[in-house]
Design a protein that fits this description.
Layout (H helix, E strand, L loop, with lengths): L15 H7 L2 H4 L3 H17 L5 H19 L12 H13 L1 H4 L7 H37 L4 E6 L2 E7 H26 L1 E2 L15 H8 L3 E2 L3 H6 L2 H27 L7 E2 L18 H24 L13 H25 L1 E2 L1 H8 L6 H10 L4 H18 L8 H5 L15 H6 L9 H15 L2
Parallel strand pairs: 3-4
Antiparallel strand pairs: 1-2, 5-6
């Protein structure tokens, strides 16, 4: 039991089944940088408060740096002999500096160590995710700017509704991802709290300088309650929630690209380099990237629900159930970053079919609302105007024509308020031009949206 961090109280060697089931080193090895950074900061603080000599602290810090390099070079291959990353680092340290290495664990527990490691990890992952979101936002903005005049149908219920600019449509996703960035930034305020010094759950009898450690590691504050500090993972859940929301937005964008790339829509062409084919149907060109992003959204949702379920019934303070937080966290971070990166490349490379989009915007009575608003301007109450236009649309359907193909006399048969100027309200381009209010799809409004987005991204 000498090689265990807890063996003194036990008479029997642990069962092999227990060791295999209990071990987390297979996945928490990813936290080695965070573990070493936290250990170095703790070491410096122990020296300051007199629990380590200057020489001892120097030996420990030098050895920890060597251990980090050893891990990166793949020296520690037989991970089965370690319980977790804390066990590996401590044993490696003792091998290098002897008894001095055993002093480093003074005034800390694996409970506050792991809380520290995970906070450091989440902090850096959130920043990376933000960077990748901004990369996708830039691709959306570039495409919007390049296609500022392209018109397509806007949809509700997947039915053609009103004409909009493609740029306006793309910038809708920009806004969704902008809020995602804001959520991650806001969550960092709650991540950036130092738990080290909480020990197992009750703090320590040693006079530590927790604020020194916080400053050393870039934390804004220290935890206010030691029991809370080691026993909650709400900051992980918040990262998973922010990631799940981002994935939801990615999935919606993916769904539209899958639809738009179909022959039925034909609005967009995915470059060959970013699509795949069929093993049996030679003609096929499949939108695998958006389909996979759409599919991976479910696993991120699952990680969020899994950790919520793990945490919901745990009494204070630390319970081994919480070991289950890391795989969900690691998988989510990997998944959301990969999806953002590949979607940014895809969006940047899309080719839009102007003819198909503009033709679709002229079919399906997309200017019916404009006709109703025309009647309102003539003094007709909106509800009456809505009913009148509905009857005009029905006539057009029966004749198999669009609204602008009806004669003036036909339309006047439904309302005496309709005059020659009505035809100026029945073209998609004019419909868009009239929606120039802030936030609308009018060209000038969209230009303002683009300017704001480019300023926010520093473009």
């Amino acid at each position: 039991m000498a090689n265990k961090l807890w063996g003194g109280r036990f008479k029997e060697e642990p069962d092999q089944a227990l060791e295999a089931f209990n071990s987390s080193i297979g996945f928490d090895i990813r936290l080695y940088k965070e573990e070493i950074a936290g250990s170095m900061a703790h070491c410096k603080m122990l020296e300051k408060v007199g629990l380590l000599s200057q020489e001892e602290a120097s030996q420990v810090i030098q050895a920890l740096g060597q251990i980090e390099r050893d891990i990166e070079r793949g020296r520690y291959q037989d991970l089965d002999q370690y319980e977790d990353i804390h066990h590996l680092i401590e044993r490696a340290l003792v091998e290098k500096v002897g008894e001095v290495g055993e002093k480093l664990h003074t005034a800390r527990s694996r409970n506050d160590q792991v809380a520290l490691d995970v906070r450091l990890y989440v902090r850096e992952e959130a920043k990376e995710v933000i960077t990748h979101i901004k990369g996708l936002q830039e691709a959306l903005v570039r495409q919007a700017e390049a296609n500022i005049d392209l018109i397509l149908p806007g949809y509700t219920h997947l039915q053609r509704a009103q004409p909009v600019l493609l740029a306006h449509h793309l910038l809708a996703y920009y806004e969704m991802f902008r809020r995602d960035v804001a959520r991650f930034l806001e969550s960092l305020k709650r991540v950036n709290v130092l738990p080290l010094g909480s020990c197992a759950l009750a703090g320590t009898t040693f006079e530590l300088d927790r604020h020194m450690v916080a400053q050393e590691l870039g934390f804004d504050e220290v935890s206010r309650n030691s029991m809370d500090a080691v026993s909650d993972r709400d900051f992980v859940l918040e990262f998973l929630f922010c990631s799940a929301t981002t994935m939801m937005h990615l999935s919606r964008l993916s769904e539209e690209l899958v639809l738009w790339a179909s022959q039925e829509f034909g609005f967009v062409t995915i470059p060959d380099a970013l699509a795949t084919g069929s093993s049996i149907m030679p003609q096929k060109k499949n939108p695998d990237i958006p389909e996979l992003v759409r599919g991976k959204t479910g696993r991120v949702y699952g990680n969020l629900v899994a950790l919520f379920t793990t945490m919901k019934g745990l009494p204070l303070t630390y319970n081994k159930d919480m070991q289950e937080d890391k795989e969900a966290l690691f998988d989510t971070a990997d998944t959301v970053k990969a999806c953002l990166q590949v979607m940014a490349r895809l969006v940047a490379a899309l080719e839009f079919n102007r003819e198909r989009m503009e033709r679709a915007a002229t079919q399906g009575f997309l200017v019916a609302t404009d006709l109703a608003e025309y009647l309102v301007r003539k003094g007709v109450p909106f509800r009456k105007a809505h009913e009148t236009v509905g009857r005009i649309v029905l006539r057009a359907i029966e004749k198999g024509v669009e609204l602008d193909q009806l004669t003036l006399k036909e339309m006047q048969g439904f309302s005496r308020h309709i005059e020659e100027d009505v035809f100026d309200w029945l073209t998609p381009l004019k419909s868009i031009e009239r929606r120039s209010l802030e936030g609308g799809t009018g060209r000038e409004s969209v230009k303002m949206q683009l300017q704001t987005a480019k300023k926010e991204l520093g473009l």
